[in-house]
Every structure is written in structure tokens, then in C-alpha cells.
Amino acid sequence: MLAALLILLIGGYWAASGKGKPASGITPDKAAVSADQHDLRALWEWTDGLYKGGAARAEWSIRWDAAGNEATVERLLEALKPELEEAPQNLIYIDQVRSAIKELPSYGGILTADALPSGKERRLVVLFRTTSGSGANRDKLLELIERMEDALRQLEADYRIGMTSRGLTEYNSASEKLAQRAGASKVDRYDDGGTVSTTYYTEKLYVSVEAGKGKKANLQAAVHRDSETGQLRLIAGVPLITGDYAQPAGD
After folding, report:
1. Residue 168, phi then psi, degrees to nearest 5
2. Mean pLDDT over the full length of the chain
3. Distance CA 123, CA 102 (A)
């Protein structure tokens, strides 16, 4: 479990190192107008045949870790106002953290934002997750990434992005199948008896993080067996998984 916690902590901290660069000079295809959209589309395609019901039946989350003088919830909401469908009413203060929660029906999920004062430079953590049972729409996720990129550019914020999918799978070897589709090489692996997690590196993705000893990683896959139901869940993340491995996924 220590290894799992370490990976999760890395997943929450890697934003501080700045925006990622392409792994190998690849360029986004015609259907994806940015590197971030390219990476989400790749993860969707690689996992589509591994989840029961396909990638659309999985739960998807996208996280942006941003830093900059204008990286506040208020400024983000202003920049996103056309996409929020209506002005949010409930901005609340909790322990000097200004937070907002907003349902986005047109995107099929919920957006949360937390602005954290951090020295001279503000930090903003934004998380979108699809609503359990509602299914996911790839094109809407790609559109949301584009809208968020535009908003963060207005804030002149440096940011990093992470994306994670969770769903039921029938394959004990789901991680290996994912790696094969991604043309990925193994960087590290651990097995705690209930969860087998493997980190990989592939040149088919833009984003990457330092994995120690001169290594890089940009794809992580975990297969978790539910102790109560016996069901297998595949959790896949770019560049790393963020959140709990045991978090419920859609049926």
C-alpha cells in the first residue's frame, strides 16, 4: 500500500513541474487540435475494447493543476462562463480555500475547482468527472478540454493535465493488453494482492513525468479485484492514475 500511496501523491504533485512536451515530436491528428486532446483520444481508443460496454461505459475524470497569479476560482468561472450554462450560485469558503462545484449536464458530469494560496503564486486544482451511470461521450470530453485550455490561457496559468478512466473488465491481463495497444514499455510494477499496478512509457503520448533514475512514465494501469463482488476493474491513467484504485466504477 505504501507504493500505491506514493504513486497517488506523485499524481497530485507533478503539476508543479510545468507543462509537458511531446514524447517524441508527434503531432496531434486532424481530429484533435491539441496535445491534451490527442492524449485523451489515445487513452479512449486503447481502453475501448477492454472495458465491458466500451470506453463510454467507464467513468472518466480529468484534472488540471494550474499555477499563476490569476489562478483563482473566480477568474476561472469568469473565463468559463459561456460553458457553465448559468452563473454558479454557491461559492463557499472552507479553511481559506475558495471552492466551487458545478454540474455540467451537457458534458455529462460535475466540475469542481479549488484555489489554494501558495506563496506568491496561486494554485488552482480543477477536476471534472463523469457522473456514475450516465456514460461518457468522447467528443464532449475533447470539447471540455478545449474550453478549459482556453480558460487557463486567459488566466495566463501554467498547468498540467491528468486523465483517468475506471470501468469493469473481463481481462486479468487488461494492463498488458493496454500496454500492447499503446506500444508501451514497462517502467515499474507492484502487486499488493488485490491490485496489480504497472507504470509504462510510450512515445505515442505527449505528456510524461519523471520516474526516477533517468526514466520517464506517461501511462499507468491497474487491475483491481473487488473483495466483495469479485469483479475486476481496470483503472488507466495518463500520465498517472489519480484517485483511489478501489473507487467504484460503472457496471
Report:
1. -75, 145
2. 82
3. 19
DSSP letter, residue 5: H
Q: Which of 196, 190, 191, 189 shows the shortest CA–CA distance to 171?
A: 196
pLDDT tens, position by position, 21-55: 444 444 444 444 699 999 999 999 999 999 999 99
Number of alpha helices (DSSP H) and beta strands (DSSP E) in the chain? 5, 12
Cell of 216: 520517464
CA angle 65, 67, 68 (to 5 degrees): 155
Output the pLDDT for position 183.
98
Rounded (5°) CA angle 207-247-44:
40
Tell me how far apart the alpha carbons of residues 169 and 239 are, in angstroms, rounded to a whole number. Answer: 21
**Which neighbouring-strand residues pair with 145?**
none
| pLDDT band (50, 70, 90) for residue 97 | low
Distance, in Å, from the CA atom of 48 to the CA atom of 40, rounded to the nearest integer, reads 12
Helix (H, G, I), strand (E, B) or coil at 151: helix
Task: Decide which of 124 and 82 is more confident.
Answer: 124
Measure the CA–CA gap between 48 and 84, rounded to whole angstroms.
29
Q: Residues 176, 179, 184, 188: what is their CA dihedral angle, to the nearest 10 degrees? A: -50
